[in-house]
Amino acid sequence: MTTLVIGGAGYIGSHVVRLLLEQGKEVVVVDNLSTGLRQRTEGAELIELDVTLPDAREKLAFEMRACGADSVIHFAAHKQVGESVENPEMYWHDNIGGLANVLSACASAEVRDIVFSSSAAVYGMPDVDVVTEDLAPQPINPYGATKYVGSGCSPTPNGPTRCAPWPCGISTSPAPGGPSWPTPQ
């Protein structure tokens, strides 16, 4: 079976793509390459698609069926805090609208295993040394708020939510460390 990695040409997504490929998994990357790099998807099929567009739901569902996707990992989102303050409408439209298209496509294609990549930004600036997932979410900018709302609209490992009728995982990990991709010349 195949894992569809949405935003797989970006920094975090490309690390997951590389790990899946190293494990011998079939991987298809969906990315609009607005900030991601094509060379980060080497070894995986790349489908250039902006998941925020009105017709993305149908195209995503088609691609999920065509590649036999049985799981989706969703990383695609705008992620700059300052930009989110300057242009909150874009963040709400693209981060939440893109997620809605992904969830709708998954429902249409009957893909039930989904991981939504959230962010530690959902916790704001808590007065603690270590941010853990048991803290109350308190986003302080539109980026963190869209990730918080996205986490609430996504199914959870414990079962469905009002927005998604099946279980999935939500990752709120910070960016991974370790070796990065070389900067293209």
Fraction in beta strands? 15-25%
Radius of gyration, in angstroms, nearest whole number: 16 Å
CATH class: Alpha Beta
- Number of E-type strands: 6
CATH topology: Rossmann fold
Average predicted confidence as pLDDT:
85
Quick recap of the structure?
The protein has 185 residues and is of the alpha/beta class. Helix content is 35%, strand content 16%.
Spell out the blueprint of helices and strands.
Elements: E1 2-6, H1 11-22, E2 26-31, E3 45-48, H2 56-67, E4 69-74, H3 81-86, H4 88-109, E5 113-117, H5 142-153, E6 169-171
Parallel strand pairs: 1-2, 1-4, 2-3, 4-5, 5-6
Helix pairs in contact: 2-4, 4-5
Structure characterization notes:
There is one protein chain. It contains five helices and six strands; from the N terminus they run E-H-E-E-H-E-H-H-E-H-E. The protein is α/β, with parallel strands linked by helices. It has one domain (2-171): Rossmann fold (3-Layer(aba) Sandwich). The chain has a six-stranded parallel sheet, sandwiched between helices. The longest helix is centred in the middle third of the chain and has 22 residues, at 88-109. The relative contact order is 0.15. The model is unreliable at 165-185 (pLDDT under 50).
